[in-house]
Backbone:
């Protein structure tokens, strides 16, 4: 799914930018805070409808601008498709709302992944194994929404329902509402939460073989790597996820009222990295953690490419400096097999010379991007 052109207006550090991309790897070089990650962020938004750096859309709007616009022309199944995301500044006359268009037609964010699938590998991913469970849930859900067209809408509905239920739990605790009002919201949590649980487990199942193969290629002497879903909802025999979630919510209702929060459901689950039979968090060195994370990203590429035979856009945001030469070499080989990849770095010294030679190289300065050969 190559990107042919990218245009930005009022997006982060860019007042206006127009850039055209050819096939193959692109290396974007610039010092810290020059705008490299902003460029990557715009492509993530065009792929998913949201930023990977902020939960608030309006933060992408350049200071002093009323809105931020990102537009790209993407080659999809042999056709050129234009995708556009516009975010209005908080407090602007249009409000802090977001508009998404595909070929000029207003669409929901769920319409973007089928047009431009992407895999992002960023420095914060190095915390996946030892960081907060929310990081691992977010990564898994990012794969889910690119595999399942309706998943994004269901996840949004689940979050809104969760907010409403938590608010009700607090009102019940403060004796401002009755416990009998919980059943409606509990039913919605069980219904939508069960779908999320099913999708997450299916995504992990799809990841299993590609992950094992990638890890075996990178670290043939280490035990096999697997991912294990860690849930507080375990269905009993002949019990669906929805029934199990409903049962657990009823079992914990009194405790939830006391805490004023929903204590079971996919928003509380985790993903464990298992090497052999042991969680990596118990013993893994930084090198072993990075091997596992690299294998995970390579597996993600394979899983998304298998959906329709079209490899996703690979976005590598300043990660080569985090990897040793052996791991860099594996990544370089995979980049060479892709129709397009975008790599950011502060210096080409961190990159394989063969990769640089095969790439279109761009130089970034605050507010603009130009060909390094211009």
Residues:
């Amino acid at each position: 799914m190559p990107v042919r052109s990218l245009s930005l207006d009022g997006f982060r550090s860019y007042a206006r930018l127009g850039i055209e991309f050819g096939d193959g790897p692109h290396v974007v070089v610039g010092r810290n805070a020059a705008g490299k990650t902003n460029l990557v962020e715009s492509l993530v938004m065009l792929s998913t409808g949201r930023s990977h750096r902020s939960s608030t859309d309006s933060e992408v709007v350049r200071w002093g601008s009323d809105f931020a616009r990102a537009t790209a022309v993407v080659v999809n199944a042999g056709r050129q498709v234009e995708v556009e995301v516009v975010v209005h500044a908080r407090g602007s006359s249009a409000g802090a709302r977001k508009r998404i268009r595909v070929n000029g037609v207003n669409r929901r964010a769920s319409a973007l992944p089928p047009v431009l699938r992407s895999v992002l590998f960023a420095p914060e991913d190095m915390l996946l194994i030892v960081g907060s469970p929310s990081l691992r849930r977010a990564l898994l859900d990012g794969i889910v929404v690119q595999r399942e067209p309706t998943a994004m809408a269901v996840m949004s509905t689940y979050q809104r329902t969760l907010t409403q239920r938590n608010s009700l739990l607090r009102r019940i605790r403060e004796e401002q509402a009755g416990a009998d009002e919980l059943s409606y919201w509990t039913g919605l949590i069980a219904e939508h939460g069960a779908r999320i649980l099913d999708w997450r487990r299916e995504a992990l199942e799809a990841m299993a073989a590609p992950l094992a193969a990638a890890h075996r290629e990178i670290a043939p002497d280490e035990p096999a790597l697997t991912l294990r879903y860690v849930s507080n909802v375990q269905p009993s025999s002949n019990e669906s996820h929805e029934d199990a979630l409903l049962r657990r919510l009823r079992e914990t209702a009194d405790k939830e009222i006391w805490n004023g929060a929903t204590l079971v459901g996919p928003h509380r689950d985790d993903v464990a990295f298992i090497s052999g039979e042991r969680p990596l968090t118990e013993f893994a060195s930084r090198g072993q953690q990075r091997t596992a994370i690299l294998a995970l990203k390579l597996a993600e590429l394979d899983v998304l490419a298998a959906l329709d035979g079209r490899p996703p856009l690979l976005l590598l945001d300043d990660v080569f400096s985090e990897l040793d030469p052996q791991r860099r070499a594996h990544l370089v080989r995979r980049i060479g097999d892709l129709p397009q990849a975008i790599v950011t770095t502060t210096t080409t010294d961190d990159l394989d010379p063969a990769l640089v030679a095969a790439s279109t190289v761009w130089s970034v300065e605050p507010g603009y991007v130009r060909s390094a050969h211009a």
In short: The chain has two domains: 1-117+311-374, 125-309. DSSP finds nine helices and 15 strands in the chain.
